[in-house]
Amino acid sequence: MNTPVRTGAQPRRGVRREQLSDEVAAHLRAEIMTGALRPGTFIRLDETAAALGVSITPVREALRTLRGEGMVQLEPHRGHVVVPMSRTDVEDIFWLQATIARELAATTVTRITDHQIDELERLNDELEIAVGRGDPDEISTIEFAFHRAFNHASGRIKLAWFLLHVARYLPALIYSTDPGWGQQAVAGHRLLIEALRRRDARRVVQLNGAQFTDGARRLIARLEEIGMWD
C-alpha cells in the first residue's frame, strides 16, 4: 500500500524527486478512488503543491502518471481534470487483483516454508496490536508487509509485482481507519495461516480471494454513500 503525502508537510531532505512524485500520485489516486476528488474536478498544480507542502514539479509528474493510468485527462488551456469512474471500473480493479491473488495463493501453499508461515503469524500478531491501538498508518504498513510476505513466498516475483501495481488503486486508509475491518482482517489472517499449516490449497485460495470481494463491497458502499453515481 502506498503512503500518501502528509498534508501540510514540508519536503523531506534526501527524498528523491521520483519518490516524492510517487507519493503525490498515491495521495491523488486515493482521493480519486474514494470520491474526495469527484469526476470533473480540476486539479490545480499550485493549489495541490501548497496543500501537500511540495513544489509544483512532483505534482506535475504525478499528474502525468495518473494521466497514463486513465484517472485524469489534460484539457488544453484548462489543466488536468478527474475522469469519470463507474461502478464497473471499481469492480474490474478488484476482479483483476483477486484473479492474480488467487493464482499466487495456489502456488504459495505448495512452496511456503514453516519459517515463512511463522513470520506471517508474527506479522498478524503485530497487526492485532496496531488494530487495538487504532493506528491507521501502522495498520496499513503491517497489512502491506503481511501480504507482501505471503505473495513473495510463492516465488513468482513477476506476478507478485503485477499485483503490487494493481493494488495501488486500493485506498488503504478507508480500510485501516475502520475498526471492524481491522478485526476482520486479523481473524481472516489467522484462518489463512491455519490453512497454510494444513497445506489446504482450496481453503487458502478461497480466503485470499475473499478479501478482495470484501474490499470491493466496502469501497462501493462508501462511494454510494457519498452519491458518486447519483
TrEMBL record:
Specify whether Transcription regulation is a keyword of the entry: yes
The UniProt transmembrane annotation reads none
Highest taxon of source: Bacteria
Molecular function per GO:
DNA binding; DNA-binding transcription factor activity
Q: Does the keyword Endoplasmic reticulum apply?
A: no
User: Gene3D superfamilies per the record?
Assistant: GntR ligand-binding domain-like, Winged helix-like DNA-binding domain superfamily/Winged helix DNA-binding domain
HTH gntR-type domain ranges (all copies): 18-85
Q: Which InterPro entries match?
A: GntR_C, TF_FadR/GntR_C, Tscrpt_reg_HTH_GntR, WH-like_DNA-bd_sf, WH_DNA-bd_sf
For this UniProt record, the keywords arranged alphabetically read as follows:
DNA-binding, Transcription, Transcription regulation
Recorded protein name is Transcriptional regulator, GntR family protein
Give the species this sequence originates from. Answer: Mycolicibacterium smegmatis (strain ATCC 700084 / mc(2)155)
